[in-house]
Amino acid sequence: MKNIKVLGSGCANCNTTLKLIEEIAQARGAAVKLEKVEDMAAILGYGVMSTPGVVIDGKVVHAGGVPDRKKIESWL
After folding, report:
1. Phi and psi (nearest 5°) for 47?
2. Residue 26 burial (CB < 10 Å; 0-12/13-18/19+)?
3. Cβ(75)–Cβ(24) under 8 Å?
4. Cα separations (Å) of 2 from 10, 12, 32, 56, 57?
5. How far apart are CA 34 and CA 20, in angstroms?
6. 24-37: pLDDT as tens digits
7. Which domains does the chain have, with CATH numbers?
8. pTM beyond cutoff 0.90
C-alpha cells in the first residue's frame, strides 16, 4: 500500500489533485492511503514551495499545478 499525501492549503488545484489521485487509484485497484496536509509548517518541511505537492512514501514526487493522469498513473 502506498502512503500518498497531497500538500496544499485547500485551494481548487489541491482538491482537484486529491480527487484525481483517488479516482485513478480506485480505477486501477491500487491500494493507497490518501491524506490531505494543510499545515503550512508541514508543507514547508517537505521543501514544497508551490502547491499542490504530492508526497509518496515520504518522497516528494510533484509540486506546483495539477499533475496529469499519465503522471499519476505512473506513481501507482
Report:
1. 80, 15
2. exposed
3. no
4. 22, 24, 5, 7, 6
5. 11
6. 999 999 999 999 99
7. 2-75 (3.40.30.10)
8. yes
